[in-house]
Description:
This protein is an all-alpha fold.
Amino acid sequence: MGKVEEYKPVMAMIGLQLCYAGVTLSSRATLVHGTSPRVFILYRQALATICIFPFLYFSRRKSKISSLDLKSFSLIFMVSLIGITINQNLYFEGLYLASSSMGSAMGNINPAVTFLISFLVGYEKVNIKNIRGLAKIAGTILCVVGAVSMTLLRGPKILNSESALSLANSLLGDLKDQNTWLIGCLFLFSSNLCWSFWLTLQVPISAYYPDHVSLSAWMCLFGTLQCAVVTFFLEKDPNAWILHSYSEFATCLYAGVVASALSFTVQAWVISKRGPLFSSMFNPLCTVIVTILASLFLHEEIFTGSLIGGLCVMMGLYIVLWGKAKDVMKNQEQRDNINNLEVKIHIEDSSNTTNCNKDLENPLLSKHKSTEEIQNINN
């Protein structure tokens, strides 16, 4: 049983990456067939809110947190705007204009960008005299270079190539396709910047509002309302609000339940068991799965430049994670020392309480002492 418990986080993360790959591929297929990205996001968030909000009742029964005040409302509203509304609108627009493999590969720069933002705001420390500190810097630069390579240098086609191209078209692609590809990649890159800001903002908001289930439910609700406003003003076609097939509804339901509701629970459990470093190490697995399945079933083209850039991003990811590994180990040791100290203090307090109870249980007047002895003591 011990080995099974040890491998449960691994199996959970592999299953979660498979779910993420399914969301990316199914969303891309739905968008290509004519579903509006903004309507898709709205329905996805609405279904996620319906799914997760019943858990808010049970969470608030166990939690001592009161209802939302002005500060918590403002923080959750801002986090929902950045992490859900802006992030998802940029991501799915970029997913539609670029490809599902590009959308998955671009997500591997999140740890490096998050580290850079955390360093700028003071959450991360870098010692340039230490090899692990230099690894964090080098890995971040490598991730950014890889992302730029994926965006600008497409190169010759590796899979699903139809014909030979000239050198200029081979490197940059056709002008029209290149512009669409570039805009899609910029959308995806901007989406990952928003997601990294969202991850960084979790530090202050979690300290102020530590009930994660309640926080997730409120973010889903605010995100749904914000997406409804955005879709109302940007989507002028009334027919775009209608889902024309059961497959479109199933994709919205799957994306909402898995990517917005289930993933929160699984990620929170894995991070509580192994930490955020362990969770980030599985990100490239989704990229590999999406790239292979997209080329087989969606007939997406794979370019040499995108492949080389994706490999650079993965290498930079693991270099950053290696540089972060020692920090995570130090934090875990500090938490263990604090827990051991608390247990020691609790044991000492318990022993003192026991001794006091024993002293109180003893009679003030011993049976073996006579009344005369007591009077002599008083005199």
